[in-house]
Every structure is written in structure tokens, then in C-alpha cells.
Amino acid sequence: MDRKSIIILVLCFVAFFSWHWLVDRIYPPKTLPPASTNTLSSESTRTNRTGPPTTPPSLVEALPAASLQVVSDASLPEELLEVTNSNAHYTFSSYGGGLKLVELLHYPETVSRRREHKSQTNRVATLNTFTPAPTLAILDGNGVQGDGVFKLTRTASGVRAEKELTNGLSVVKDFEISTNYLVLASVSLENRSDKPLSLPAQEWFAGTATPMNTRDDGSAVGVMWYNGSKGQDVGASFFSTHGFACVPRVPPVEFRGGQTNVSWVAVHNQFFALVVMPQLQEPANQVVIRTNPLPRPSEEELTYRSVREPVGYTAELVYPGLTLAPHQTVQRQVAIFAGPKEYRTLATIAAAFNNNVDSIMGYGGFFGFFSKALLLGMNTLHQVLRLPYGWAIIFITVIIKAVFWPLTQASTRSA
Fold first, then answer.
1. Phi, psi of 369 (to 5 degrees)
2. Pair 97, 134: CB distance under 8 Å
3. What is the torsion angle, in degrees rounded to the nearest 10, for the CA atoms of residue 339, residue 344, residue 350 and residue 351?
4. Which pLDDT belongs to residue 116?
5. CA-to-CA distance for 284 and 278, rounded, in angstroms?
6. DSSP three-state, residue 398
7. How far apart are CA 266 and CA 269, in angstroms?
8. Which helix (H) or strand (E) covers residue 382, if one does?
């Protein structure tokens, strides 16, 4: 390689690594107008676990027109009701009358290496952390919220949230804790007055996707929704301030998708997901996805690997307005999965609900077939032969080598 080629190569490397800085200097990013956001509280849930803090929704300032909000009377204390089974610990909130936090008991928040053992905590993985509203809160002002404070009662199989509004509307939500990380919910809207009651279109809050911990860079955090035939994942790239060829752009305020065909929506990170699945016969009209700035890590949590400005994503399901005749009740069934992205579990749920919810694993396309086959083979070896997953991978590699060895030898001879 001559001197000229070396100089060109060095200049290319310099241009590559300084591209972002040059673009920002030539085209400074446009700053968005400041918008009011939820003030995140440091109050944690009333539990004996040392989990990350969560934020009860409070009476908040107005957000941009694109964003709806749970309105809760801050003068009334938030009531939390907790239910635990063998897999998870569920916290329900009277603010919005929904599922506020899920703690997965068998999954630690972080797995430390030996040299990082000092930073290991006993916290478990959580879903819906720092959410501005609980799952299945109904957002659309006084018409369906009132003061936003529900009465919580424990039932034989879960929790009931009830609210009576001054316009005659009664909202009752029944949450039943089930197996396979499922919560089965029934939401009833009843007109208890003697006059017809018109309700506006509602946004039902699905959940908030957040990083797993302060070191999660957020690249795998997002919201996936499914329209009955294919899914779409919306996350950092959609809301990025950099467009094509890193040219700065003003990111969109929100994402909207669906045309009366939203079968489910999943807020997820790399290993865990919270999926809201309406009954198959009545999909939601649309899905709305927005960014949700998260609290900065504390000084103790800040390390050279920590993300200093973490961002989450919220998802809401849009249902059309309706008119309830006197004493008429409309009931909607919703299933909620809140757990690990474990293929066997998700495949079982997908078969039961006939909704392809296992596609959140990302096993679509041509290579997805082979990914599923290898994963199923690895799980089978782990269950039948009690092999650790590391040895299962080695065993599968040996089998593949043995199967293709004759073809390799034939190709070597022909060459």
C-alpha cells in the first residue's frame, strides 16, 4: 500500500468518527418547545422488596394536545393493593384503577460479573416502572374519568376497581391473576342513569416500556403492535433526532397506527414484555405510542456505562366513542401478559388466543424458522437430558457438524 492510499484511508477513518460532530456543528439540532410532563415521584410501592421506585400519577399540568392524561385528585391518598403468586408480585393503584407495577420474582434486575459484584443488587426485574398511568387506565377527561380515583377491593382471584361518575357512568374493572404470567381483565361500562349517555372515544393505557436497568442503552426498548397479519416495532429509531445520513430532524410527537385492527400491543425491552391483548372479536381502533422521559440515575448509579438520559415509551389503545342506552352495559375482555420473552410460554399463549403474540420474540422471516428450531432443540436437550444450556449448544453444534460432514467432504474432493 503506497503513501497516498494510507493518507486516504486515515482521512476516511477521521471523517467516519467525526461525522456526528460535523453534522451537529453545520446543522444544529432544532430544540423542541418545552412541554409539561409528569413529575416523577421517588415514592416506592409499599412492599418489602427493594425494587426500583415507581411513580403514582398525580394531578398534573396540561400536556400537549396530542397527549391524554390520567387525572387523579391529589388531595385523596393513593391506595395500593398487592397480589402475589408463584411467578410475580402485582401492584394495583386506585389512581386510574389499573395495574401499576409487575415484579418478576424469578428474574434479577441485573446479573453481575465477578469484577462487578459490588454493583449487584437483590432487586428483581420489573415491568411498568415509572409509568405515568397504570395499565387499563381509561384516558379522556371527566366523561370517563371523573376525579380518577377508584375503589380497590380484593376478590377471590384478584382485584376489583370500581368508579361511579356524576354523569351516571359506572366503570368496573375485574383483574384475575392467572397462570403463564397472565392477568385476565374484564372492563364494564354501565349507564346507571335513566337517560342515554354519550361517551367520547377513549384511550386505554397499555403500559410503559423502560430499560431493564441504568446500563441498558435502550436500543431494544420499544412498543410492538400487531394488526392481525403482521407486527411493527416502534422505538428509538422512530423518535430519533437524526434522520437519513444523520441529518438532524425534529422527531414526531407520537406514532399512530391501525384501522380497527389492533390485535395487541406490547411494551418491551430486550428480555421482558407487557402485552395487552383485547378479545379477538373486538380489536382496538388504533394504537398511540409516545416517548416518556425517565428520571436520571442517582449519583451512586452513575458509572461510565450508565445511560444518563433514559427514555421510555408509552402505548395506548384507542376505542371509538359510543352511546349507552339507559341501564345498558358494555363489557370488554382484555388479557395481559407481563413476563419474560420465553418462547414456549408465548407460543402457548399465542395458540390459546390465536393472535401470534409469540412474534414479539422476533422469530419472523426466513431465518426465524431456523432460530425456532435451534431454540426448541436446545430446550428439549435441557429438559430431557438435564444438560446446561452451554453444553446443549455444544451438543447441537456437534450434531450439525456430523450431519453436514459428508457434504463437506464431497465438496472438498470435487475441489
1. -60, -45
2. yes
3. -140
4. 42
5. 7
6. helix
7. 10
8. helix 365-384
Per the listing, cell 431454540 goes with 375
Local structure of 183: helix, strand or coil: strand
* All cell numbers assigned to 88: 410475580
> What is the C-alpha separation between 123 and 107, in angstroms, rounded?
9
Q: Which cell numbers in the block locate residue 294?
A: 425517565
pLDDT in tens, 68-87: 555 566 678 999 999 999 99
The sheet that has 231-235: what strands, in order across it? 151-154, 158-164, 169-177, 182-191, 329-340, 272-278, 264-268, 222-226, 231-235
Evaluate whether 110 touches 251 at the Cβ level (below 8 Å).
no
Q: Cell 388531595 maps to which residue? A: 75
pLDDT in tens, 7-17: 766 676 666 55
Higher pLDDT, 369 or 299: 299
- Measured in residues, the chain has a length of 415
pTM of the predicted model as reported, rounded to 2 decimal places: 0.75
> How many other CB atoms are found less than 10 A from the CB of residue 205?
29
Kindly report the number of other CB atoms within 10 A of residue 182's CB atom.
Answer: 21
- Secondary structure (3-state) at 224: strand
Q: Which residue is it, cell 449487584?
A: 120
Helix-, strand-, coil-residue percentages of the chain, each rounded to 5: 25, 30, 45
